[in-house]
Amino acid sequence: MIIRFTKKVQDKFKWKQLKPIAESNLSNEWYVNQFTANRHKYYLATHAESLFSVIFRGVGIKTDGEFMDRMIEAWKNQVTNEGLETVVNNLLVPLTKEILITSTLNRRILGSMSDMIKMTEFILADGDNTEDSSPFALSEFLNKTPFSYIGMDRPKDRIAKYS
C-alpha cells in the first residue's frame, strides 16, 4: 500500500522531504489530505483508482501510527456499511502488509479531493449538529457522488469491482 500525503499532512507529522515514488498501480494507492471546517480538523483519505473516500476527525491523532489505525478503521467501517465486506479482504488486508509513505503526484486526484473538501465544508457550514454532518454520513455522500476523473462513475460503484 502506498499512502500519499499532501504537504499539509506531511507538516502535521513533521516529515521532511518525503521521496516521491512513481505511480505504478493506482489500486494500491491512497491519497490523504487534511482540512478544517467549523474549527474541527478532518482528514480525507481517498483510494486513488476508485476515489472511494473516508472522512474522519483528526482529534487525538498525534502520531502516524494513530493516524494509520484510525484511517484503516474508518475505511473498514465505511466499506462494511456499503455492503462490500469482501472488499476489505480482497483489497485492504493484502495491502496493509507493507505500507510506503510518500508525497502526492497526481493532480487530477488532488483536484477531485479538493471538490470533495468543498462539498464537505458546504454541508458542515449548513448544519454541524445533524446526522447528515457526521464524518460517516459525509463519506457516504461523497461515495455516491459521480466524479469526472472516473468517467462520471460513483466511487461506491467503482470500489465494488474489488469484491
TrEMBL record:
> Which stretches make up the DUF6933 domain?
2-157
User: InterPro entries annotated for this entry?
Assistant: DUF6933
Protein name in UniProt:
DUF6933 domain-containing protein
Q: From which organism does this entry originate? A: Leptospira jelokensis
The major lineage groups are: Bacteria, Pseudomonadati, Spirochaetota, Spirochaetia, Leptospirales
